[in-house]
Each structure stands twice: as C-alpha cells, then as structure tokens.
Specification:
The chain has 515 residues and is α+β, with helices and mostly antiparallel strands. 36% of the residues lie in helices and 20% in strands.
C-alpha cells in the first residue's frame, strides 16, 4: 500500500499527422544547436503549433492527481525539478502550442521501469526507469519519445481497448458501476488494463522514437541517448525474464506496449548515425548521476514490500502470503491480488466500530448503495491470535453469478484490516483461504530489518573489478548480472579508475507510520 505497479506506458494508438518532418538525413555540416537554445529566434514569429484537444486536457487534469497517487506519488525536490527541466527542453521542439504550459512532467515514486503519457499533455517517468539510465541524453530521449506520442496524436483508438477479455472487469463494471470499490476494482481495472494491453504498432513506436530523437537533438543532446536507453531497457527486460519465476510481482507490460526488440534499438542506432551527429552534443553524465545518487530502487518500504509471494509493510507491521500462481500489485491505499480463480484487495485502517459494522460498510462501499445485497451474518473466527469475521454475498450480474466475500481482522482496538474477494459464484473464499490464514503481525525487529535499496554512484578505484563491485550489490542472487546490466557492461569488462558506476546497496529508511 502507498504504491502501484500496474500502469504502463503511453495511452496512444492511432497514427495522427505530424506537421514537421524528422530531423534525420540533414547534412552533418549544418550548424550544431547550442545547449538549450531558445525554441525560436529572438524577435521571430513563433509558429502557432498544434493545440491539444480540450477534452483530452480536461480529462488529464481531472485524473492526474488520482493517477499520481495511485502510482506511488510524485517525487519532489531537486530530482523532480531536474526531470521537469529536461522535459521542457525537449518539448519546446514538439510543435505543440505553448509547450511550457501544455505539457507537464512528473517523476513517480514507482518501482516499475516505465514512462508513459496521456493525450492531455501529461508525461510520467518512474524513478526505477531513471535508475537504468546513464546520462541526461537518455532521459531526454525517453521524455521526448512520450512527448512524440502526444504531438503525433496517437490516442484516437484508445477507447477500442477499454474492454478486457477477462471475465472479471466486465462483471465489476456491470455490478458496481460508479461505487467507490467499483472504481477501485472495476472501472480502475478497466482503465489501467486499457493502458496495459495497448500494443503499439511498430510504425507508431518508430515514429515516436524518431520524434523523440529529433526533439532531443534540437535541444542540443547527443542522439546516442536513444539507442543507449533502448539497449538498457532490453537488458533489464531480459534479466527480469530470467528472475521472474521467483517473483509473484505483477509483471508490467512494457514489452507489449513499447516493444523492446533488438531491431528497434538497432534502428535507433542507425538513425542516430544518419544524423551525422552521433557522439556530438550534450550527455551531462556527471549532472545526471549526481541527481540519481540515493534514488530508491525496487520497493519503498514506506509503501510495503513485495518479496516473492510475501507482502510486508514494515511500518504497519503487516505481512501476508498470496497463493501460488497469484500476482500482487501494491497501490496507494490497497494491495491488489489477481489469479485464475479471482481477484482480491487488501486494505483498511482506523475504525471505531465492530467487525460486523465494518463488513457492512465495506459492502456499502462495494456497491455504492446502487444494489441491495443479502449479506449473511458474518462468521466469527480467530486467525493468528486476532478476532476476525468473514462472510460471502451472492451477486447476480449480466455476466453471471459472482461471490463477493469480505474477511475483516481486528488488528487493534481502533484499527481493522480486510480482504475483499471476488470469485465465480459458488467459489466463495475457497481460492483465497491460504492467504486469509496467512495474515499476521510482524515484530518490530522484523520490520526494522527491512531496508530500502538505493543507487550508490561510486568512483572506480585501482584494483576494482566488475566481480568485486558486483559483490556489493544488495541482492541475494544474480549480483553480477544485475551490476553488468545496470551499467551496460560486458562480463569481461575492465573498469577504468576514475570512472563512475552505479551500485544498488541498502540505504536508510524514510520515516513511516507505526501500528
């Protein structure tokens, strides 16, 4: 809780017109743009540019705060300002009217390697994706790519992906409508899955790549940032595939929405060479690494940690285990669990009434008062020393019969937590019984033992090797593979003293809640 890992990349599909042509193929002797030049000559007339659709802008403005909160919250401070400044430098050349006011950039506290945009002019990049990068030119390309989706108007077919093939989202939308839990479990799932299941055509991805490279070059950056960040993503994706079998984390859909083929990286490299400017321009590696130093990697313990099938919130002292084959995604106010037999969410907090009153409130929120459910009296049980109550209500929907079950735990006199579970009619809580019985309070010592992983930028010293530095990585497995992937190094690479490289080490905890 306090973090989400579901949402993935740009909400964009249908190819739209782009007035300006890509920058490639222009003669190498053309005057090289100065660092961060003015978008238009002093005293000249600024082209009007393309205005964003007011409906898209209004929708993006309405959803931005909720989206940011659900995706882990916005980072603040120097790094957030740095990302925003780089974004505005590349957006100045997008052809969007008044880009400084129309396009917004947000850094997300999310452990997903992800950047995405929405048609109304909002671009988001996660700290996890930044951790894969090596310099500012790579960041400029990633942001420029997303701006390219906006500028090219790639969003017209978005609504065609509003429905998912799985049975649960359609049931939820039909049953729960605009209720609180309907939004959280139904419409929100559909909204997110709409982004998750987007599969950009190669032409659309290539066009966004071309536009991103054009923008970054006009802003004065080395076009090498484009193939380099694509290569970093490919390395990370391949490594994650190897590690995935040991994790119950919901897997982001980056590979389907932004296909990370070798061809795409090679194409970007070829196009960067065609510009005649490969290796020229800004990289600002030192400044970028200075901003990256200390960045959280993977889970922020203040939001809870997914480790295999276990979810642990060290500050709230909560731990539970999902069934085998189920995946978790940690949101701002709830942990979502999904598997073949159904979906569930874990949440809760302060409450002054009884368990029975709490369960009734959950059902009221679940339906938003739009449906009258016959809720059987909850059954009282003891689970790991805690009083608990559980019940299931049968729901008839246009898509079939659904069991909506709730189990609530008396965590403290003034605090109750719960699972709400949605399964096919007749299944009740059966698919989730191991999870229900696994919820427990961890000790203070167990909570204190959980520390965040952070990026530590270090300077290579004489005698350092990839093996000796990899041994410092804060992981139990794949230490060498992770180090090489993070730094774009070959297994037999020799490290030059004085060069800076990235490590992932254990850092200090942020102040959190107690409970």
């Amino acid at each position: 809780m306090r973090r989400a890992i579901l949402l993935i990349t740009s909400a964009a599909l249908a190819l739209g017109p782009v007035s300006a042509q890509p920058y490639y193929g222009q003669p190498a002797q053309q005057p090289y743009p100065q660092p961060y030049p003015q978008p238009y000559p002093q005293g000249g007339m600024q082209p009007q540019g393309r205005y964003l659709d007011p409906r898209d802008v209004a929708e993006a403005q309405r959803e931005n705060a909720v989206m940011v909160q659900e995706l882990g919250g916005a980072e603040t401070g120097a790094r957030a300002a740095y990302v925003e400044s780089v974004g505005h430098r590349v957006a100045a050349y997008s052809g969007v009217a008044s880009p400084g006011q129309a396009i917004h950039f947000t850094s997300l506290n999310s452990p997903v390697e992800n950047a995405f945009s929405v048609p109304g002019g909002y671009v988001y990049v996660t700290r996890q994706l930044m951790g894969l990068m090596d310099d500012e030119a790579e960041l400029a390309f990633a942001l420029g790519h997303e701006v390219g989706h906006i500028a090219a108007n790639h969003a017209r077919a978005r609504e065609a992906y509003a429905r998912r093939n799985s049975w649960l989202p359609s049931i939820l939308g039909a049953v729960f409508g605009n209720s609180i839990f309907g939004s959280m479990l139904g419409q929100d799932v559909v909204r997110r899955s709409k982004l998750q299941t987007l599969s950009f055509s190669r032409d659309q991805e290539y066009q966004a790549d071309e536009l991103g490279m054009r923008y970054m070059m006009q802003a004065g950056y080395d076009p090498a940032g484009a193939p380099e960040v694509l290569a970093a993503l490919s390395r990370a994706s391949a490594l994650q595939t190897r590690i995935q079998g040991k994790s119950s984390r919901q897997t982001p859909e980056w590979a389907s929405t932004h296909p990370l083929s070798e061809n795409r990286m090679q194409r970007a490299l070829a196009e960067a060479r065609q510009t005649g400017r490969l290796g020229q321009g800004l990289k600002n590696r030192e400044a970028f690494l200075a901003q990256l130093d200390g960045t959280f990697v993977d889970d922020d313990p203040a939001q809870g940690v997914i480790d295999g099938a276990l979810f642990t919130h060290p500050d709230l002292r909560i731990q539970f285990r999902v069934p085998q084959g189920y995946l978790m995604s940690n949101g701002t106010t709830a942990v979502s669990i999904s598997g073949g037999a159904g979906k569930a969410q874990f949440g809760g907090g302060r409450f002054g009434g009884t368990l029975d009153q709490y369960i009734l409130q959950v059902y009221q929120e679940l339906t938003g008062g739009q449906m009258r459910l016959s809720v059987p009296p909850p059954q009282r049980v003891m689970i790991n020393g805690m009083p608990a109550a559980v019940t299931s209500a049968r729901v008839n929907s246009r898509s079939g019969v659904v069991d909506a079950s709730v189990v609530a735990y008396q965590w403290a006199p003034d605090r109750i937590y719960h699972f709400v579970m949605l399964t096919r009619g007749g299944a009740g809580t059966q698919p989730f019984i191991p999870m229900i019985n696994s919820l427990r309070k961890i000790s203070v010592a167990e909570g204190n033992a959980i520390r965040p992983r952070i990026i530590d930028v270090v300077t290579v010293r004489p005698g350092d090797t990839v093996q000796s530095l990899a041994a410092q990585m804060a992981y139990r497995d794949y230490q060498l593979d992770r180090f090489l992937s993070l730094n774009g190094l070959a297994p037999g690479a020799r490290l030059a003293p004085g060069r800076k490289v990235k490590l992932v080490v254990y850092g200090a905890r942020r102040a959190g809640l107690t409970g």
